[in-house]
Amino acid sequence: MLRHRFMIPVFLLFILGMIIPAGGQTQPRVTLQVNIENEVKNGFFNHDRHELRIRSSSYTLSPNGYLTMKRSKEDSLLYAVTVNFSQDMVNEEFYYQFVITSNNRIIKEDYERYVLIREQPIEMYATSFYHLAF
Description:
The radius of gyration is 20 Å and the shape is globular. Helix content is 17%, strand content 37%. It is α+β, with helices and mostly antiparallel strands. A hairpin with a 6-residue loop joins β4 (70-71) and β5 (78-84). The model is unreliable at 4-21 (pLDDT under 50). The protein has one domain: Sandwich (Immunoglobulin-like). The protein contains two helices and ten strands.
């Protein structure tokens, strides 16, 4: 009987250890979302011809410098991408721009946005682009 009472707490600690990362930390990440309704209305974005990406001047996102955003299944005007960071990026600023690409043509925002990376996941939502530069 004593053995069974001891095994239940040990089993629960084992399960919790698998669910909760060591030290209670989660991987720092930022999810960027943008609603492109204005860009579609103004003819700057066509779902069939363009891709929506992000670029950063402060962090290497990929070998080509861009991450492609994915279109939401629930809202055709909402695009999102999640950027994962290492722990040493916590409390660093992440600068980024939304970029429309099509056949080597790039339309980007005039200004960079930024977010301070935290240990906990962050979600950023934009309702439109800043002024566009060609």
